[in-house]
Amino acid sequence: MIDSAYTAWRSDTLAGHASVLVTDSSESVLALNNRARADLILDGTVNARREVELHDGTRAAAGDTVITRRNDRRLRAGRYWVRNGDRWTVTEVRDDGALTLRRVGRKWVGSVVVPAEYAAEHLDLG
Known about the structure:
Blueprint: H1 2-14, H2 26-42, E1 47-53, E2 59-62, E3 65-68, E4 72-77, E5 80-82, E6 87-93, E7 99-103, E8 111-114, H3 116-122, E9 123-125
Antiparallel strand pairs: 1-2, 3-6, 3-9, 4-5, 6-7, 7-8
């Protein structure tokens, strides 16, 4: 079932559609995230030359989609702030481990730089 769900997700994303994978365990989430990320690196969507490690051992780089897992009103993207559950695209990995993020689905919203500590503790692959 997981393989079938992944295949459908991959087809949707290659066709330019928004798609979500849902599973019942953190182990399955980790496996699906790693599989998806490997494919995105291979097709050039994700640039894995510079990465940061996240709390669950996964890694994030430019091109990855991440989900913020903690509200932080100090981290602003235009009129918006970083909220739990928001999806972002990593646009830059900085030398100090901070990440520049752009909110998914919002063309006119500014970017936000999340400090390395926030990235390491409060981001998940999306």
